[in-house]
Structures are given as C-alpha cells and as structure tokens.
Amino acid sequence: MYIILLGAPGAGKGTQADNLSSELNLPHIASGDLFREALRKETELGLLAKSYMERGELVPDEVTIKMILHRIEMPDCASGCLFDGFPRTLAQAEALDKGLADKGKSIDKVIYIKVSDEELLKRLGGRWLCRNCQTPYHLITAPPKVPGKCDKCGGELYQREDDKEETVKERLRVFLAQTIPIVDYYRGQSKLIEVNGNQGIQEVAKEIMLLLKAK
Ligand code: ADP
Ligand code: AMP
Question: What pTM was computed for the model?
C-alpha cells in the first residue's frame, strides 16, 4: 500500500505516521526529515535546501522529486510506504504518480488531516522533536515522560528553527497557495480520505483506521 499523509505544517502527520507505520507495517518517508538529515550531514542537497527551509519556502520541485523517487527505489519501499510531507505541489503529485506507474504501482489512499489555523499555531509553538529518531512531542498535548528526553530512544529533544512564529506564518501561506490544489487532484482520483484533525491524538488515529478500513 502506498499512502500519503496530507495536511498543513503541524497538522499531526508525523505523529499519526508513527502509529500508522507500525499498524500497517509500512516505512515512513518524511521529505522534511530527509532534508534535515542532509542538512545535518552538510551534503550538497542539504546545503541547497537550507535557505528555502529557513525561509519556510518549498525546496524546488526538481530537487525534491529526485530525492523522493530515489528513496522509493530502496528495497523497503518495494511493497508500499507512507509519505509524509510529500507531495506538496501539483508537479510533485504528478511526478509521484508517474514514478509509481513506471514500477506498476499507484497511490492507494490520501489521508487529509484538516486542522484549524488557531490549533496549528498552538501545536507548532509547543512542538519538540527528538534529534535522533524525529519523534514529535508537545509541551502540553504530548509531553515526554522525562523532560527533554525521547521516550523511545532517550535522544535529546529540540525545537525546530522554522517553528518560530514568522516562519510558521510563511509556511501556512505556502501550504494554502501551493499544497491545497493537490487536495482536489486526489479527490478527482477518488483517493481522498478527510479526517477531522482538531481532535486528540488517539481520536485522530482511530478515525484514520476506521476510514481506511471502510474504503
Ligand atoms: P506535522 O508532521 O504535520 O508537521 P506533528 O506530527 O509534528 O505535525 O505535530 C505537530 C505538533 O502537534 C507536535 O508537537 C505534536 O506532538 C502535536 N500534535 C500532533 N497531533 C496532535 C493532536 N491531535 N492533538 C494535539 N496535539 C497534537
Ligand atoms: P516539514 O518537516 O514537512 O515541515 O518540512 C520542512 C521544510 O522542508 C519545508 O518548509 C520545506 O522547506 C522543505 N520540504 C519538505 N518537504 C517538501 C516538499 N515536498 N517540497 C518542497 N519542500 C519540502
């Protein structure tokens, strides 16, 4: 199964991907995590992505598409994966369809997690992530058991530079302008599942599983 998690920054894609990837036994492919890893290793890709990420803008399609199509060639994606943060533009969605079709595969479902802007700002303002395994936490809604440490691997928690208010506003603007159009693209393919993301983490997880089973 090839599944896409779609939603604004802070909608809970990474949080739900953690649960879904173990429930469905699918690798979690997060484009933002891949860019941050490249940045940490100071590769050519990381250095190219850096300025766009700092400004809250999208990394150019050509670069992003190449990175993801390369990633899904790896053996762990042979029978499916869970995309998080990709695609984010129509060109990316079309390139992904083509890349999968070349392998005789296709996207099965697109889960669109809808969250109000007010809630997104609260979530991003309190988000902390594990530097080691990228698990997301929240100061109020999903705190770690030991402050500053990841429950899963003990890694150090940090706040993303681009979660500061000015950059978040730009990221939300970019989402509306460039990513919202792909909602209709997948609705047109009858693949879209819309989920009320304004609920607690467990409630959202339950709704996703119910809707996936129903369709
Ligand atoms: P995304 O991957 O879509 O950017 P995350 O999964 O990182 O979003 O979630 C953003 C923040 O909101 C994190 O701090 C996370 O712990 C918190 N969060 C995620 N889902 C919920 C939810 N349903 N209710 C409350 N807080 C949530
Ligand atoms: P995320 O971790 O998904 O919030 O992504 C962090 C940043 O990485 C974004 O603000 C973009 O600069 C970049 N990025 C992640 N995914 C994509 C994508 N699919 N297309 C373009 N840029 C991306």
Answer: 0.97
